């Protein structure tokens, strides 16, 4: 899957600029020809607090372009405005971005007047620029009400959460099938268009940090600067792209990424057309655990306790477990649907709760006649069921496949025995991985 588009949004909540290549830095995507110009380095503030399209949708009509030593701003019925990147302004102002304090350097009254005239406001509206040489960044880690996997070196400047936002064309195409008025991917204001988890793109190595929680900003048409009166696509997203236990009623679309290492310098350049390589976590392998541990690991959601921790190296198996499947899908109907795509499906088993209700859980076991289809699904990390993309993990291979693997001179199938503490730890890690994979889509 290749990168389809790259965009840099130099001013928070204003128009983006398409580029053919971008430098991946600690602070986001930057111009390779002038790394001083990078994503969300500038911000418009009113009395020190950031402004956005959520309250001023006409900000979408402010269109920057890159010129020598800075930006050129254009907006309807306004003269062009040059924003220099050097020399930097001198006046330090205390600002807030999402209630988090951060400093900025304020441009002079001439530039402030341009924005007040544009917004037809008498309020104190200023443009500020971040100076990474003297100002402290905002941490992406442990945001309130925003669980994520950010590490200490993941930071943001004037971004909402993280410096790199990646979105899938496929996800937006799927969303448009549910909307009367179609939208464009630019409503979601991503930097990189097309998807997934820990990824290598061109020279850059990036790490998944969190899904992107969608607010009302995508309801603003980026070409007209007008909000949708029906609050679409926000309302539709809340109907089917939720993870209530982690993110409440907030809809998810797109993901945030950060650099894998903590280097303050650029980690590489990416170009339109670069392939996106998904880096998966290696699944673990183990033999059956003791009956006592089996009972300890059993949970009310119907887990059989070995699906997340028992598998084979290189994911060679003919059995998978699919998670987060809607409970009203009958196993027989699901098998008939899957046979259209995977002709070697042998069995489809709907797992039941272990309490007295015996109600179906959100987990479905799929057995294949051959291991190739299972391997493909596990390499992707998911399987599509209807209009839903469901995470998939490996189950222990069937006895027939185990014997075949052990007798093959080319196989490195060597099950290992772990103690109970190690198995418990791997079980918890795999559950976390499943939650993370679900949140990507």
From TrEMBL:
Domain of life, per lineage: Eukaryota
GO molecular function: catalytic activity; molybdenum ion binding; pyridoxal phosphate binding
UniProt domain MOSC: residue ranges: 133-279
Pfam family, one: MOSC_N
PANTHER family associated with the record: MITOCHONDRIAL AMIDOXIME REDUCING COMPONENT 1 (PTHR14237:SF19), MOLYBDOPTERIN COFACTOR SULFURASE MOSC (PTHR14237)
Descriptive protein name: MOSC domain-containing protein
């Amino acid at each position: 899957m290749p990168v389809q588009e790259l965009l840099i949004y130099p001013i928070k909540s204003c128009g983006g600029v398409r580029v053919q290549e971008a430098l991946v830095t600690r602070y986001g995507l930057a111009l390779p020809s002038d790394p001083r110009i990078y994503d969300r380095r500038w911000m418009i503030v009113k009395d020190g607090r950031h402004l956005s399209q959520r309250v001023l949708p006409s900000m979408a009509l402010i269109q920057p372009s890159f010129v020598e030593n800075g930006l050129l701003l254009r907006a309807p019925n306004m003269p062009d405005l040059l924003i220099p990147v050097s020399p930097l302004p001198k006046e330090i102002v205390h600002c807030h971005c999402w209630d988090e304090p951060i400093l900025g350097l304020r441009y002079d009254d001439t530039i402030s007047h341009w924005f007040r005239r544009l917004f037809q406001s008498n309020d104190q509206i200023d443009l500020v620029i971040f100076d990474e040489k003297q100002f402290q960044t905002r941490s992406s880690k442990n945001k309130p009400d925003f669980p994520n996997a950010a590490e200490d070196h993941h930071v943001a400047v004037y971004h909402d959460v993280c410096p790199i936002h990646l979105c899938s064309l496929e996800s937006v195409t799927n969303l448009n099938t549910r909307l009367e008025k179609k939208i464009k991917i630019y409503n979601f204001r991503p930097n990189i268009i097309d998807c997934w988890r820990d990824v290598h793109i061109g020279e850059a190595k990036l790490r998944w940090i969190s899904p992107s929680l969608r607010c009302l900003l995508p309801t603003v048409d980026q070409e007209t600067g007008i909000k949708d009166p029906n609050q679409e696509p926000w309302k539709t997203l809340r109907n089917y792209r939720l993870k209530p236990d982690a993110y409440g009623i907030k809809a998810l679309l797109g993901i945030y990424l950060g650099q894998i290492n903590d280097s303050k310098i650029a980690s590489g350049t990416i170009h339109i057309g670069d392939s996106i390589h998904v880096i998966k976590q290696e699944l673990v392998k183990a033999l059956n655990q003791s009956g006592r541990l089996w009972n300890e690991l059993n949970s009310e959601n119907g887990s059989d306790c070995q699906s997340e921790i028992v598998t084979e190296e290189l994911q060679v198996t003919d059995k998978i477990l699919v998670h987060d499947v809607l409970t009203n899908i009958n196993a027989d109907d699901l098998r008939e649907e899957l046979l259209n795509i995977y002709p070697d499906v042998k069995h489809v088993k709907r797992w039941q709760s272990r309490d007295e209700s015996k109600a179906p859980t959100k987990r479905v076991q799929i057995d294949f006649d051959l291991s190739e289809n299972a391997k493909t699904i596990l390499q992707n990390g998911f399987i599509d069921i209807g209009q839903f993309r469901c995470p998939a993990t490996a189950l222990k291979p069937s006895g027939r496949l185990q014997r075949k693997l052990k007798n093959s001179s080319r196989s490195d199938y060597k099950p290992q025995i772990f103690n109970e503490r190690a198995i418990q730890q791997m079980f918890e890690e795999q559950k976390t991985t499943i939650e993370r994979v679900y949140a990507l889509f």
